[in-house]
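Per reviewer request, we include the raw input and output of the structure prediction for the construct analysed in the revised manuscript.
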Amino acid sequence: MLMRLVVGILFVIMGLNKLMTPDMFQGMLADKFSLGGEALSVAFWAVVAFELLGGVILVLARLFPSWLYKLAILGQLVIVVVAYFTVGDLWYHLLLVAALVGLFFSLPRCLFGITGYRK
């Protein structure tokens, strides 16, 4: 549970950082991937949305169904792997990959759903 909270908060912080300084991240997207126009805008908002919403889903994992939890982790995993190969071989990308894979296979129980509320 602690790992889920730390990783979720980390993704929320990274998403907010990109949202507060969009020119820097959009410049990196344009430079590394040769994106421009609509593709640049779509890529920017997709990454920010997956980081912010995925981080919130990780922090509040028990309130969401398992398929949404897994989708959030897979989206974040794609972001981290792409960042590893484009930004550089930073050690925390490898730690995030290991943490996300571990979180993918350890599903929290949902408070609401088919089985109902569990105490």
